[in-house]
Design goal:
The protein has ten helices and four strands. It is an alpha+beta fold. The protein has a single domain, classed as Outer membrane efflux proteins (OEP), CATH 1.20.1600. A four-stranded antiparallel β-sheet has the order 1-2-3-4, with no helix packed on it.
Length: 412
């Protein structure tokens, strides 16, 4: 009879309240946040702008050097009678030898590849940050819901005890004990609400979400599939595709191209000068060829330093690769462990806690429950839900971290 009465009261209060609620907000998925963040990120736009500039620069890096035009007049102020002015109009063109133009093009292409890798790495970094902030906002939002439900449960217990105390069926100390628990949960809820609001505002700013977006619209991601197989082998195979390894390899290529450019500078260039000369009202042609003699300076200093940079870049690439393989292997192992823990959290945590809480609430309704055991059951139930919430989000975050560590996109 009591259950029927409670159901009627709930229908009278809940149904009108539900009818007054507006339409549910449009759901916001992690994939949509990643897409919006990529499209609106100033950092990604800046990296892509540098990439386009570097590619364009590589297209013109091998052009000829500019010619030099000279107009010269001689014999000014001479004391020799009848000696006229000699006038020259010549053009000088430097002809680069030793493959300098090709070496410049190669260095520019290496720079374009570095810019391309930097844009890729920037995109992955932004995606990782967006995913982390999205998951944290979801975790804190759900934490608020769990604490709010726990607060409502304690508030209801306090109301029941207040009636029992008023009727003389329970001591006031029990009511005070539950009131203190309710106050503690209220404080925890206030702190959780502040953290959840901050997390969502930071996500909205980073992902450039509209002002009307709400944390309630965030869709909790499902568990992500993880690659099977030996983690070490998977990490070794995926290492070349990681942004940090690609950047290290690009630095090696840049250093190699720099050596080629410095070697080409050891070969003197050829200069060709041709034009017109006018002397005593007679026009004649001028032609000259010049080149430097590599007797003293053959660019040995720059070549030696460039070779040292190649070796240093190769060693750095090897170190980055080893660290990348270790990082990817550890990330994958961690993701697998957390996925297994999250998969059993409901059955191992929430299920037993729900049974214990239900039993203690039933005993409390009958007036036969020990207050400390009731409080402990309520706490255990809330703690189990909070832990299940955290481990579920951590499993998704670890899966995304593993995918990024393997050089893949955050989502399949």
């Amino acid at each position: 009879m009591r259950s029927i009465a409670l159901l009627a009261v709930w229908l009278l209060t809940a149904v009108p309240a539900a009818a007054q609620k507006g339409p549910a907000p449009e759901p916001i998925t992690l994939a949509e946040v990643l897409a919006a963040g990529r499209a609106g990120s100033p950092a990604i736009a800046a990296a892509r702008s540098r990439e386009r500039a570097a590619v364009a620069a590589a297209g013109v890096a091998g052009r000829w050097t500019n010619p030099a035009v000279e107009f010269r007049s001689e014999n000014w102020g001479a004391d020799v009678p009848g000696l006229g002015l000699d006038s020259f109009a010549t053009v000088t063109q430097t002809l680069e030898l030793g493959g300098k133009r090709g070496a410049r093009r190669g260095a520019a292409l290496a720079g374009a590849e570095m810019a391309r890798v930097d844009a890729f790495a920037t995109t992955r970094d932004i995606e990782g940050e967006l995913a982390g902030r999205f998951l944290e906002a979801v975790r804190l939002r759900d934490r608020v819901e769990i604490l709010a439900a726990q607060g409502d449960a304690f508030a209801e217990l306090v109301r029941v005890l207040e009636r029992r105390v008023a009727e003389g069926f329970a001591p006031d100390a029990e009511r005070a004990r539950l009131a203190a628990e309710r106050a503690a949960v209220a404080i925890a809820l206030t702190r959780a609400e502040a953290a959840a609001e901050r997390a969502f505002l930071e996500l909205r700013a980073l992902a450039a979400l509209p002002d009307g977006a709400a944390a309630a619209a965030l869709v909790r991601p499902d568990p992500l599939p993880l690659p099977t197989g030996d983690p070490a082998q998977l990490a070794a195979g995926a290492a070349p595709g990681r942004p940090d390894v690609r950047a290290a390899a690009a630095r090696v290529e840049t250093a190699v191209r720099a050596v080629r450019l410095q070697n080409s500078l050891r070969i003197p260039d050829l200069t060709v000068n041709t034009g017109l000369k006018r002397t005593l009202d007679t026009n004649t042609g001028v032609f000259a060829v010049g080149f430097g003699l590599p007797v003293f300076d053959r660019n040995q200093v720059a070549v030696t330093l460039a070779r040292g940079e190649v070796r240093a870049a190769e060693l750095e690439r090897d170190l980055v690769t080893r660290r990348a393989e270790a990082d990817a292997s550890a990330a994958l192992l961690n993701a697998r462990r957390l996925a297994a823990a999250a998969a059993g959290s409901e059955a191992q945590l929430v299920g037993p806690a729900t049974i214990a809480r239900t039993a203690m609430r039933s005993a409390f309704d009958l007036g036969a429950a020990d207050l400390l055991l009731l409080v402990d059951a309520e706490r255990s139930y809330a703690d189990a839900r909070l832990l299940a919430n955290d481990i579920g989000i951590e499993a998704v975050a670890a899966a995304i971290a593993a995918r990024l560590a393997l050089g893949e996109a955050p989502l399949p």
